Target: Proline--tRNA ligase
Amino acid sequence: MNQKTQKPAQIRHALTVKREDDFAAWYQQVVSEGEMAEESGVRGCMVIKPWGYGIWERIQKIMDAAIKEAGVDNCYFPLFIPLSYFAKEADHVEGFAKEMAVVTHHRLIADGKGGLMPDPEARLEEPLIVRPTSETVIGAAMARWVQSWRDLPLMVNQWANVVRWEMRTRMFLRTSEFLWQEGHTAHADRDDAMKETLRALEMYRSFAENVLAMPVVAGEKPENERFPGAVATYSIEAMMQDGKALQAGTSHYLGTGFAEAAGIRYQSKEGAQELAHTTSWGVSTRMIGGVIMTHGDDDGLRVPPAIAPHQIIILPMLREDDGDEALLAYCEEIRRELLKLSALGEPIRVLLDKRPGKATQKRWAWVKKGAPIILEIGGRDAAGGMVSALRRDRIWREDAKTNFVGQSREEFVAGVAALLEDIQASLHREATEKRDANITRGLTTLDQVAEFFAEDKRYPGWVELNWSRPTGDALEKVVEQLKALKLTIRNTALDAAPAEGLCPFTGEAAVERIYVARAY
Amino acid sequence: MNQKTQKPAQIRHALTVKREDDFAAWYQQVVSEGEMAEESGVRGCMVIKPWGYGIWERIQKIMDAAIKEAGVDNCYFPLFIPLSYFAKEADHVEGFAKEMAVVTHHRLIADGKGGLMPDPEARLEEPLIVRPTSETVIGAAMARWVQSWRDLPLMVNQWANVVRWEMRTRMFLRTSEFLWQEGHTAHADRDDAMKETLRALEMYRSFAENVLAMPVVAGEKPENERFPGAVATYSIEAMMQDGKALQAGTSHYLGTGFAEAAGIRYQSKEGAQELAHTTSWGVSTRMIGGVIMTHGDDDGLRVPPAIAPHQIIILPMLREDDGDEALLAYCEEIRRELLKLSALGEPIRVLLDKRPGKATQKRWAWVKKGAPIILEIGGRDAAGGMVSALRRDRIWREDAKTNFVGQSREEFVAGVAALLEDIQASLHREATEKRDANITRGLTTLDQVAEFFAEDKRYPGWVELNWSRPTGDALEKVVEQLKALKLTIRNTALDAAPAEGLCPFTGEAAVERIYVARAY
Model:
């Protein structure tokens, strides 16, 4: 290679932290070195940088199509919710009151010390909440829109920012402000609402598996983990590489509680006034944290091709001499050729990275960002009709250069769609195998569970237990026992095997299976 | 037609207000009857309904592609801006301080009266502003990202909600919360920054003309109308059908003021520390208000095909009898056939409206929403291979039914792409002719201007004046004189003819031409 030599110490090639040494520090480094996001200087809020936001745009595009396909209409509802709206549903407000950003003034004035302060004359009569979720304000709209059974089901969705004042934040996983979609639907009866709740859950499951290449368990959350005000909450749960669970999407059957609070009533075919049954369901930028912790390796992120903003990076090995023109022309030809192809059901996305800079530095930047295929092309390649391709999911860490496979341009182009599809499938397979290998079954007592999680394994994974599904105080006791072990109940898989034996918590006959794990 | 007859009085077919009788009331009715948006119950905030939001999604899609094409990267920055960030640029904070939503608390507690209140224990040390615009928080990020001349230009954009606490609000035109995109760029010098400012302006001009079919004047705003903190502000100005001007997009050259406040400095090629020159530019949901007031007629909205969520509505005349099945099959065939076609450079968007309901009611709903083509198909049409097509932009108001053109299905399909393109072009032509006919030139004294706008014409349109471009106090005097006539200076067109004669305000030699108008 002919670019100016540079002292290795000046280039930060790889990550400095390995997953097995400090998973949390590794995560932070991937987010930072992969140029996904950074601290904004505003408490708990992050700046999502182009590569991270590009992944979110891909998620939005594919999820939005699935939402529309289901007959749900996109709308937009206010950022602010009057306190009185929020207070109508008791469980709901109790669940969120501790973490809400409250707007109290609508003007600033000079504070007499050269600075500014909220103008006491411009205090709002009723404080406004920055939406942590929109059931209440959307419920108010639904109450206006629904009159007759003919208006049902009413199905809307919005892509929006929401705010929950989290005390301990972590980029993508838990931030004070985050981006999400929230679907809200109203139905004539429980059956129809439950059908929609499960449809949304299945949409999320399928999206996680097929688009994010992230295996998940779709199931019902226990009573204590329900959304505030919900009758039933379902989730998709993914296992991160440290064995912890990540709740990556939720779908709620809300019964008639929110309809009653907002007044969503309809005249039935028989002429009676009935309360609607509502649902809500959402996924957020948190999914990106899940992708990082599912697919990242010790070189950085590995982005599944379906959500990679660019699937193929063409890196010309520029020499800043006369040869560059021919090299760039050759790269541009390949780019145009690739743009005509499709993979995973969409046109291939290619970037020709012509920016100035050292080739090794640029290569490592794309490795850390996790672009699925990196195509390095030097002057000799251009002259001989060749390319060197790196498959990011199978990098051999010690010397990335030796991972590049030299091949003819024709050969590469002919195989690239299959290659992208294979990368997508391989990432899913690898993650599924890892997940399945870290689910432990057959523990039958709480002592066994305690012993299992007390072992000197940093990443014990999940345990599947049979239980009797206690409620109320009995459930509270179970939750406390698990909390002492830093464990939580994740969910009961929809496709779980029948329960067996006795409940380790109550000693009663088990009625279903649950996953128990440490969690984000 | 065979649908059940219904007493006309029971159906609210058309609008009840005409443009010439009460333009403001007409606007409100189009927004409401066209199911574009509605009041949310939250002060100054609207709910954008599916048809209105669908238009916004079309605007986003096309504008986003143009922004990306220019090499600008999408990111996401925090909703909240610490007061101290905002206060760094004096003009900027002064311009916005009077209309900012201020977050002061992060938790609610019981108020002892059965309600909730902000928890005095959870008062923020530093109040947070809900962003009215993001120069300051993006400037802080740019200061981190820019070190060397190699990092410039730095060009980012975000699609976001912003809040300006407006006292008098009107849907889409002026709401407390609105949706927009804001581009922010940093450059090495004035020339490069000014080039970008004008590139963004031209992008907006071209978008307004070619996509919204809305003729605009692209030009520079006078000093008194600059964005708070800007060195130069450019706008696109459109003429509404009441003759008023609507500022539909702005692009600002910010000089080095924001760079200095945020510390955006770079090392030049020569090794010196220099301040970057920044720009910002944005368009918002206000554009939708412009589309309504440019293209709406006394039957409701007319949506240009380029931004219509559905360009063709297929309306089967269902009879709720055995014939419906064959009719629906025929409609479905046509839908599939149309989906294979493209118009205006994109696949055609078709909706088969199978919902129950009276055919006339459904027809009028789509007329009011302004779908470009409505295709009514009855059982006899289906049997004979025919369709009846309504071209929304040329409706003859008294009896919409007679506007439908019966033709063979083949004939319609063969001509539909050209038809959509002709509708797009016709709307643009019609609006341009109307605009041009309402610009008055040749007034040379302030008395003439006063007389012109005092005449008993409700919609006098715009006046083009030659002026001497006064600044400071002299400009203030002009602004006051115009204000007394309820007039404002809109902008100086980039392609304006050379100035002529004397300035009607100062008596000095004119140096440029300005548009003077009433405005939204």
About this structure: Chain A has three domains: 23-101+133-295, 305-426, 439-517.
